[in-house]
Amino acid sequence: MNTNFFSRFKKSSTPSTIQPINIVSGLPRSGTSMMMKMLEAGGIPIVTDQLRVADESNPNGYYELERVKKLKEGDFDWLKDAGGHSVKVISALLEYLPPQYQYQVIFMRRSMSEILASQKQMLAQRGETDAGVSDEDMSKLFEKHLEQVQDWLVRQPNFKVLSISYNSILQDPEPNILQINEFLGGNLDLEAMSRVMDKALYRQRKESSS
User: Fold this and answer.
1) Can you give the residue range of the structural domain that contains 169?
2) Alpha-carbon dihedral of residues 64, 67, 71, 72, nearest 10 degrees?
3) Following DSSP, what letter does each residue of 41-78 receive, concatenated?
4) Is residue 207 part of a domain?
5) What is the pTM of this model?
6) Nearest residue to 84 (alpha-carbon basis) of 13, 16, 162, 168
7) 127: which DSSP letter?
């Protein structure tokens, strides 16, 4: 990492008075926990209850909030205090976010083969097995889900969306971090964000990336 690269991009002295809720989303195992950690390092407070502790699959923690799982049940009250914060919401739950708030969504994308491999490894570490669905069928299900989510997002007037590739940000972090900083208002600590990424944890990389 070029430590002087980010020196040209200073923090703005006039932060916005409007506080949208920052959402980190994507499929499970797509790099959402890493992005949450990056935003925290960049200076954005996060919403998490730390009930799901770090383990071998996510040594740096999951950065989750259990109440997010209850969005489908109408558990929205906690969102009134989430302005200016970041919270992780998996892609399947985005449609349950209430429309009265403004959202800035960083949507993580990752090679599908890596997502499937990472999920299998996580299940194995827990002593669990998959549902017997083939990788080909699971990949089709996930891709169809992502298309539906993206189609839904572009039709939401209160959602701004930035797609970030997990593979790309590990291989070439600087332009991706600058893009995230611009998307979120230009006030992030770019150097701190760049120090978060640990390529040693990139264990399911594609053969072409190794």
Assistant:
1) 19-199
2) 100
3) HHT--B-----S---SS-TT-----GGGGGGGGT--GG
4) no
5) 0.83
6) 16
7) T
- What is the predicted pLDDT for the residue at 44? 97
Is residue 210 pLDDT above 50, yes or no? no
In a domain, 64, yes or no: yes
Structure confidence by residue, pLDDT tens digits, 71-120: 999 999 999 999 999 999 999 999 999 999 999 999 999 999 999 998 88
How many structural domains does the chain have?
1
| C-beta of residue 40 within 8 angstroms of C-beta of residue 119 | no
Q: How far apart are CA 66 and CA 5, in angstroms?
A: 38
Residue keyed to tokens 């640990």: 198
Amino acid at 4: N
**What CATH number should be reported for the domain holding residue 94?**
3.40.50.300
**Token code pair at residue 157:** 């007037």
> Over 90: is that where the pLDDT of 10 sits?
no
Which residue's entry shows tokens 């002295």? 13
- Per residue in 42-74, pLDDT tens? 999 999 987 765 556 555 667 999 999 999 999
At 185 the three-state DSSP class reads coil
Residue 104 covered by a domain? yes
* CB of 32 closer than 8 Å to CB of 42: no
d(CA 29, CA 101) in angstroms, rounded, equals: 27
